[in-house]
């Protein structure tokens, strides 16, 4: 039996704070689909470096380019204003070891503050954009603004698409999968998953990948049988 969840948020779920289902669709919490976490680095109008701890994104492309697609960039944020004004940004992937540092950039995010300093991160010069890179990042995408779309037409958030101009990868992460896809690699956001029994939203959880096997291992399994690893 499956639970059906419609467009009426009050059918099932309850906000943790007023306006939560305006900033985020209630389906965000009903689905709670894990998404990779990263730091968006930009430059404020006063020249101070800015960091935004973000998720809700995807990455892909073709022969015409590779693109970072970021949902839910708030129109009220420094990050949105910086990207629109400067037309560029960096996406910095750090491991879960830096989660507390990332949270510190949210707590200390006023205009006068250097958010690299607030989070204990080291500023590193990018190759193709003015926005700085996070030196502690094991992989950074340097991006130029390609598209800015308010999908919901509510004037609250934008989908920002960046064309990736350059990628910087820490040498120890280039070979194999252990570093990039284990505890020291990408970290994921499980955003306040809903408890369907009570309608309450649970705490946000942080996750990392557990690699189960290769494509070759999967394709040799008999069709219709449960995979065993």
Task: Provide the descriptors you would attach to this structure in a database record.
Pnp Oxidase, Chain A, single chain, 17% helix, globular, 6 helices, 7-stranded antiparallel beta sheet, alpha+beta, 229 residues, 3-stranded antiparallel beta sheet
- Provide the succession of SSEs: HHEEEEEHEHHEEEEEEH
How confident overall, as mean pLDDT? 89
Q: Class by helix and strand content?
A: alpha+beta
Number of helices: 6
- Find the CATH topology: Pnp Oxidase, Chain A
- CATH class descriptor name: Mainly Beta
What's the CATH architecture name?
A: Roll
Largest sheet: 7 strands, antiparallel
Strand order of the largest sheet: 3-2-6-9-10-5-4
Number of domains: 1
β-sheet strand percentage: 25-35%
The coarse silhouette is globular
Radius of gyration: 19 Å
Strand runs, count: 12
Low-confidence stretches: none
- Give the end-to-end Cα distance, rounded to a whole number of Å: 28 Å
